[in-house]
Design goal:
Two copies of one chain form a homodimer. The first copy, chain A, has six helices and 17 strands. Chain A is of the alpha+beta class.
Chain lengths: 330, 330
């Protein structure tokens, strides 16, 4: 499958800016995607162990019809505090949902578990969230062991000794009708990573002899320890588009975009993955919505973002990345 | 990825029998999976255009905690009538949920749209559902253009002239701890079919010159007609296991098993696909539940069932199958 479309990251979507806050020493961080004050949001929580904030209001039945930013954060449930800082940053700029007593910024958020990498007692807080919002720009979003992907890891099917560094990645495409679709995904999966285009294994759980195992195979063939994996995972991300989606459509795109995770993370959506995706639609492009095309594009960019995350990652806190492993650095 | 596990179909799961009713002349049919009187059920509806019956009671909040059969049917929403006949067959055998005034058989059902293939005015009815239940056995379930897969088609990204025959498929595996997991899936997708193990295209929309297009590529590269596809699709299936899942776990497995569709059907879960999966757990195997392993196995067998469906299909009503296309029959 070849697709010759513009390279780019989620910030190539008109109206979208994004920024990271990274604490490499403590191996945690957060990422903020700012989407102006006209964006409609949706979400889909698919994993067994999610950590989220402001997801209920994204239901099409609920009243609030705008989101102002999405926060992706490390730090497990503690990391939800980083949204406080994003709200403060937005409030200072007068951005928020109009209420009788001031504008209230709407910042849906999801976290991933990285307490087992680096320091467990340092997590993204309000200051970190504010810093990520402050850093946001329309420059290409950095990939790898930064932002919400700083402490991310993958391929845990053979235990902690065999895991591989995860990270955050991004991808972008335009549809023939001019609609932009981009994604940023922080990949901290229990499963391993495949390239769905040729089925090849990018990051599988590493055996003692250094070889990588097929991450589904270790379960089906019995290499996998029989107990349930611990809840140290979760892949989180944002799909952004300039299409004029309504809330129900934004939720549908968030739901179907999980197929991009399913294509590349194997197995995905386990009990110990709190996999959560958001969709934000700025509505800047008046082209009539073709939801099937947007679903296909969203799946495509989410899958490419996962691959980018793991291929761009660099080793941290003693955990090696595929980049290092492929160059024989041990 | 190699997995050397027992070949088989969903009927290899202890306690599960299945049967088809096929009307090849009218190009429709239905498939019934019988699961005894101890099975727990769950479901996940992911597509944009579902047609279902008795799915609400599968919510873990609802009271009824047993299902007796699952019906997969062609005939669009009309095909839900086939569940009447499955209920009657079960009632005659005294199988059902105990109530003060008799046992009520619980038969969750989902349909696919096949009215555009063969005759539109013939659809599975109560007699058809009863016949499928009557035909159920523990023999390997037949694959291809039979049962709910009789009128199924795939790869519609270039319009009606370019589609390829779909069907119903099945697969089975056992986990190292002895748990059985099987699936039966009727594949009537808007998307094309890939083998996720090597990324190869099995069934893509056919161009006028006979070549198959990449089904995501036709959207991203602009070969795809700009309008939304019509609602003539939907992939439906059942995952069965002998594990002792509770209702919440059965719903979780049904949800994550959609990853098996995502791996092989590209794009999947579009607005015109009513993709719905059920999970039934007979509880016959007392081995403690390892939900992550069951999720991985469910994803695996669903993906293999999709591939089996399309590879086993035979041409019908002027629509050619990959088997025929690969042998130059036109």
């Amino acid at each position: 499958m070849r697709h010759s479309r513009p390279a780019g990251t989620i910030t190539a979507v008109p109206g979208i800016t994004a920024g990271h806050w990274t604490d490499a020493d403590s191996a945690t961080g957060c990422t903020v995607v700012l989407c102006g004050d006209t964006a409609v949001g949706g979400t889909a929580v698919r994993g067994g162990s999610p950590g989220t904030r402001e997801t209920d209001l994204l239901d099409p039945m609920r009243r609030v019809d705008r989101v102002h930013a999405i926060l992706l954060s490390g730090g497990s449930a503690f990391g939800l505090a980083a949204a406080d800082g994003v709200q403060r940053w937005l409030e200072e700029r007068g951005i928020g949902f109009e209420t009788p007593h001031g504008r209230v910024p709407i910042v849906p958020a999801a976290i991933l578990y990285d307490l087992g990498v680096g320091r467990a007692d340092v997590r993204p807080n309000a200051t970190a969230g504010r810093a990520a919002a402050y850093a946001a720009s329309d420059a290409p979003l950095a990939s790898g062991s930064v932002g919400a992907g700083t402490g991310a890891t993958v391929a845990k099917g053979l235990g902690p000794a065999g895991l591989v560094k995860g990270g955050i990645g991004s991808a972008y495409c335009t549809l023939p009708n001019g609609i932009s679709v981009g994604a940023a995904v922080a990949v901290n999966a229990w499963g391993g990573i495949h390239d769905h285009r040729d089925g090849s294994l990018i990051a599988g759980p590493r055996r003692d002899d250094g070889t990588m195992a097929d991450p589904i195979g270790v379960i089906l063939d019995g290499e996998y320890p029989p107990s349930e994996p611990s809840m140290t995972n979760t892949t989180i991300g944002v799909v952004a588009t300039d299409a004029g989606l309504d809330k129900a459509q934004a939720n549908f795109v968030a739901s179907s975009a999980h197929d991009g995770l399913a294509l590349t993370i194997r197995p995905c959506h386990t009990t110990s993955d709190g996999d959560t995706l958001f969709c934000v639609a700025t509505g800047r492009n008046p082209t009539p919505v073709n939801l099937t095309a947007i679903v296909a594009a969203a799946t495509h960019v989410v899958a490419l973002a996962v691959i980018d995350a793991v291929r761009s990652a660099t080793g941290l806190a003693g955990i090696r990345s595929v980049r290092e492993l492929n160059h024989g650095i041990s």
